Amino acid sequence: MALLEIENLVVEFETASGPFRAVDGVSLKVDEREVLAIVGESGSGKSVSMLAIMGLLPWTAKVSADKALFNGKDMLGMSQSERRRIVGRDVAMIFQEPMASLNPCFTVGYQIEEVLRFHLGLDRKKRHARAVELFTQVGIPNPEERLSSYPHQMSGGQCQRVMIAMAIACNPKLLIADEPTTALDVTIQKQILDLLMNLQAENGMGMIMITHNMGVVAETADRVIVQYKGRKMEEADVLSLFEAPKNAYTRALLAALPDNATGDRLPTIAGLMLEGNASVAASQ
């Protein structure tokens, strides 16, 4: 049985000009211990797809699917209280911007201990000990001291490590990493990716890596889904995708990768996400 199985997911938002379909019939499957990358330009519906399954979109969003099962449970059919027991414990998400995701009014230690209190019911002493253990595990120096820090007192890389610690606090079965290296310098990006992959291997988690970076896909993924304008353009194992992409949009993405050897001008992809020319994506 797949860890996460989604069929024909549709997400719509009401706008001044009428309904806007951000996700249009996306299907995917993730097995235990597997890393699935979802790749595409900004605005292609990558993050929205996962937020919809986790119930984290505004109530005005219209979400439907023929199937949306996590570990055999219907994520869209369950009540809010049932979903709250699963989200954060069995399935967790690392969000794009850690500084925006962490509450500036509370210490990072308080925030991670709240996760442990809500989902695991640990007492104060055990919460503190587990928080120190998690900070040590994700490579935050002086963990005892750092627990009393506020987000603004930590660097972007350290805040991202705090978000990772919060996400793995309850040993989730599925970890969703949404652009986990955005806005980090190259050295820190490498450290964060290595940390995530080590944690995934050690804990046996399934993982969904949401990214627009094909280099991250090559380093981390077992399988890849390419999205464009809310639709799935192609799905393949990572080696097949890079060696023999079948979709025109996938080929265009790969052609836009920088090549330091040649120094040639990079080709561009015509059109805009919201209104552009979709012909490149329509060619199967």
From TrEMBL:
The keyword DNA damage does not apply. The keyword Transmembrane helix does not apply. It is a peripheral membrane protein. It holds the Pfam family ABC_tran. Keywords: ATP-binding, Cell membrane, Membrane, Nucleotide-binding, Transport. One of its GO terms (molecular function) is ATP binding. Coiled coil: none annotated. It is found in: Cell inner membrane. Belongs to the ABC transporter superfamily. This is ABC transporter ATP-binding protein. It comes from Ollibium composti.
